[in-house]
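Researcher: I'd like a candidate sequence for this fold, 291 residues long. If you have to choose between options at a position, lean toward the conservative one.
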C-alpha cells in the first residue's frame, strides 16, 4: 500500500485508494479566482471549516499569489498572512500544506506544525531543500517554466512531456541527495505555469506516464485555471463543470491528489467515479479469473 509521509499523517495514495482532495485556502488579497474574499483570519477559518465539512483531505494554505503577472510577496508579508491561519488550524485534524517557495517561510511553518510544503518552484531556490530536509513533512515538487510574472508570455518547449518529466526527475534526485525519503515526495506537472493550452493538454494526456516513470504519487491542479477558460470560453467564476471534467480525467490518468477550490463538488464527483471504477475493476478481475 503506497502512502505519502506528510508530517503527522500518512496519506493513502495507492492505485486503488480514493484520490485525495487538496482544498485551496487562499489568504492573498489578490489571488486570481477568489480575489480578496478570504483575506481576513475569520474568513479564512470559516472557509477551512466549510472545506472540512465538505470532506477535504489536505488544506493547502497559500499566501503568495501566483496568478500570471503577479508581483512577488515580501517575506514578512507572507509570514504575516500565513502564520495566524496555520496556528488557528493546527489542531483541525487535517494535514496542513503551505504553498510557498521561500526557504525562510518553510522553516517557520514547519516549526509551527505544517505537514506539507507545496512549492511551485520545485524546491529550486537555494536552501529550499535544506529547509525541509530535517522534518518529516511531505513535499510537492511542481514544474514551472519561468516565473509567475512572465511565465504565460511565450512558453516554449521542444517536447513538453519529456522536459517536464526530466525537470521533475532532476528535482526528485536533488531531494534524495539531500537525504529526503522518497516516501515524502509527490510531483506535479504544474498546469498553466508557463504552458500554452496545447502544452497543458499534452501534459494532461501523459501525466500517468510522468508519475509512473518516477514511481511517485502525482498531484494535479486544474481547478478554475486559464486552460479551462480557453476550452469553454468561460470566465473564472463559471469554470466549475470544466474543472471537474479536467480533474476527473487527470484522475483516470493516474493523479492521486487533486488540488481544487470547489471541495464539495469534487468530493462528490470522486465518490461516484471511485465507486464505479472499483466495481469495474472487480468485474474485470473476476472475468479474467474465470478464463
Ligand atoms: C498550483 C499550485 C498547482 C500545485 C497554484 C491556482 C494557482 N500548487 N498552486 N499545483 N496552482 N502543486 O490555484 O490556479 O497546479 S496557484
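Model: Candidate sequence:
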Amino acid at each position: 500500500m503506497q502512502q505519502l509521509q506528510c508530517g503527522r499523517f500518512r496519506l493513502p495514495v495507492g492505485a486503488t485508494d480514493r484520490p485525495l482532495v487538496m482544498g485551496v485556502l487562499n489568504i492573498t488579497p489578490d489571488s486570481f479566482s477568489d480575489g480578496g474574499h478570504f483575506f481576513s483570519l475569520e474568513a479564512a477559518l470559516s472557509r477551512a471549516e466549510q472545506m472540512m465539512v465538505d470532506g477535504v483531505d489536505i488544506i493547502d494554505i497559500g499566501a503568495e499569489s501566483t496568478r500570471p503577472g503577479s508581483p512577488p510577496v515580501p517575506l514578512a508579508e507572507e509570514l504575516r498572512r500565513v502564520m495566524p491561519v496555520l496556528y488557528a488550524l493546527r489542531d483541525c485534524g487535517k494535514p496542513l500544506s503551505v504553498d510557498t517557495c521561500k526557504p525562510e517561510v518553510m522553516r517557520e511553518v514547519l516549526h509551527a506544525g505544517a505537514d506539507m510544503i507545496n512549492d511551485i518552484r520545485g524546491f529550486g531556490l537555494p536552501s529550499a531543500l535544506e529547509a525541509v530536509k530535517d522534518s518529516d513533512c511531505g513535499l510537492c515538487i511542481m514544474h514551472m517554466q519561468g516565473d509567475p510574472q512572465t511565465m504565460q508570455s511565450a512558453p516554449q518547449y521542444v517536447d513538453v512531456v519529456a522536459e517536464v518529466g526530466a525537470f521533475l526527475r532532476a528535482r526528485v534526485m536533488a531531494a534524495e541527495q539531500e537525504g529526503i525519503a522518497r516516501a515524502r515526495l509527490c510531483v506535479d506537472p504544474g498546469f498553466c505555469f508557463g504552458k500554452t493550452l496545447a502544452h497543458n493538454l499534452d501534459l494532461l494526456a501523459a501525466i500517468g506516464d510522468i508519475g509512473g516513470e518516477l514511481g511517485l504519487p502525482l498531484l494535479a491542479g486544474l481547478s478554475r485555471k486559464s486552460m479551462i477558460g480557453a476550452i469553454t470560453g468561460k470566465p473564472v467564476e463559471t469554470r466549475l463543470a470544466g474543472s471537474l471534467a479536467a480533474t476527473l480525467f487527470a484522475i483516470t490518468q493516474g493523479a492521486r491528489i487533486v488540488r481544487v477550490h470547489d471541495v464539495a463538488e469534487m468530493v462528490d464527483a470522486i465518490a461516484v467515479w471511485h465507486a464505479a471504477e472499483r466495481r469495474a475493476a472487480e468485474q474485470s478481475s473476476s472475468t479474467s479469473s474465470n478464463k
